Amino acid sequence: MSTRPPAGPAWAGSLMGTSIAATLSLAHGLVWPGRALLVVATALLLTFLLGWLRHRNPGFGQKFMAPWGMVSMGIMALGTAWTTATGNVAPQLLAWLVGMPLGVVTCLWQMRRFTGAPTFLWGLGPVAPMVAATSGGQLASLLPEPWGPPVEAVALGCFLLSLLTGVPVFIRVFAARPRLPAAFAGTAWIPLGIIGQATAAAHLLLDAPLARTFGLTAFAVGIPLLLFAAGHFWGRAVRRWADYVPAWWGSTFPAGTLSLGAAALGWPQLSAAFLGLLLVHWVLCVARFATR
């Protein structure tokens, strides 16, 4: 009997990765790939919603909130993709109004207690408000008065919440030197998600000099984390063609946030390179799923 979770929140990493791949493809001028990815991401959301309505697995009151953090981020990422594709702010706003409170509650609920051995999946709850910070910062510049300033204030609160919770969690996990099974090696990319996402959010919410200093510092910290993640994912999961589990998708969204962060820092070539890496990871995840 398969031990994989039923369709639902546990699989939402694929929604996150596909949605941000759609947004970045469109932003970099890859129109048809971006639109195709947008269709796939929308289908994934509908599939996971129907799966959860059927199985109700996992429940929301559990101690391990990573799946719900992924749902929050996936919804917001999909809303951003639709707004990027259509130029209509409504999808991103609706997704933010749903995903932002879900992400905040998920983060706070997760911080009450962590169970089991430290794992990078612990950080998915605390990272969710950072995605809300970026999306909120974007919305603040698009919404008419008087809505922009309060949205920006909420986004700044999400930015601080994620930093104050996510950074200590990842430090705790690294300090424990977690042993990652090959099938879960993709989760080594998760700490890089907060690096790229926070850099993008900072450039939307903070003064330019502070945002740039923050971004440069974050990317400097991210260099050894990138080497660590690539070594685990490529050296173990990909090289061994490890068993498929949803954790493979942990390699996708963080690569996308690094592309966002590089773009915010004014490095278009590096942003395009990280988009290329994201698309390669996306293809690998799909291929492994197809051959499971």
UniProtKB/TrEMBL annotation:
Primary residence: membrane
Presence of keyword Transmembrane: yes
Signal peptide stretch: none
Cell location: Membrane
Ranges that cross the membrane: 12-30, 36-53, 65-83, 89-109, 121-141, 153-175, 182-202, 214-235, 247-267, 273-291
Keyword Membrane tagged: yes
Pfam families with a match to the protein in the record: SLAC1 (PF03595)
Listed name of the protein: Tellurite resistance protein
Native species: Corynebacterium nasicanis
